[in-house]
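Q: Could you fold this chain for me?
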Amino acid sequence: MTNQSDYSCSMFYEGNHVKCDTFEFSDEIGHTIVQDFNLVCDRKNFLATIETCILVGSSIAPLFSGWLSDKFGRKLILMLSATIQLIVGTAIAFTTSLPLLMVLRFIIGYASLSVGILNAILVMELSSPKYRTIVGLINMMVAPVGNIVLALITYFLTDWRYIQLAISVPFVLILLLWYWIPQSPRWLLVMNKYDELIILMERMAKMNKKTLPNDLRMILEQTPKESEGETDSNNKINPVKIAFSKKYYITTISLIILFWTNVGMYLALSSHIVELGGNGSFNMGIAGAIELVITALAVIIALKLNLKLILLTAMISSAICCLLIMAVPQGHPFGVRVLGITAKCLIGAGHACISPYAAQMVPTHIRNFVYGLANFSAGISLIIVPYIWLLEDRIHHLPTTIMGIYGILGALGVILIRNKDKGDDKVK
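A: Sure. Below is the predicted structure, expressed as structure tokens.
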């Protein structure tokens, strides 16, 4: 007979309670990481630590990937991050050491978020302001598509090592796209790399059947800098000073709050949707499909309305769903499942809007800094998420209640954000 608590497992043997040192696991849900590393009983909390490792790596990615991409270009750092994700992700599938697993998850956390951030920045900087919102939203639709694909993978593959390989090896395809992925024309312009910029513009003009002016280089060299009027005595930009100046500090702080709450809610509800009852893969697939439809609707609505209204609606409605879970009587898992999936889909639509919305709210010359700072706050929020879910053992619906409060705070952040002045970007 086994007596299991949160911190120990023991069996009654010859009149004494003896701690178990070997375990038998059910294969009903497949071969998991818990089985390989005996993450039960007094080792149970290692699960939260393992999850935190990848989130700590993600939290520092905005600080370093943004600086590196400013110095060496978006494309190079994006491809290096994808390469790291391919190599380290594959290595994770073969590791048998728990400390090594934690280190590798930290590295892949950094690489994966770097890919996400640089992809979003590159897409924004390749798009004109007229299409930036729509292109940004369409780019974020890959998240629900990825959830659907992951649901299919976990349905057919039940060993965590095979699943890890299935989500890592496809990064080879990204590396094969090196030639077709262009460098950011805005970065080339800021770095005065006119020769490379002209080659890229000629390539773009040829694809779009346009003709470039003969004096293109002179036009580029005479283009006014976007940071004009906001440089120091040495004609250098101080992004910290500008971002927290009287003109932008409310927007900067509000975006930090928005990213903290929105990304925290999205990960919290996404990572635990499999625990809402029923088949986890089915829950993930259904949520991904609904989120995809809602995000597609957000793209259509964004053509008529502004992103602020869409984001505000998503934050408030998902918060209400999370708070309503408290009212579901015990023994009614279906109600919890419906509200949880609905909240996840709604916050997913908001999550799709957050990057293009942030890009609209700050000028280009401090966009990378503010975006990185906001993503850093999101990374800290992600580190806390696994430990918030541990509170479920104390008060059952406390984590979803906290997520509801997150949604309300995020909505307040959206309300406080001021619109960017039309003159903030001198180069469109």
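A (continued): The mean pLDDT is 81.
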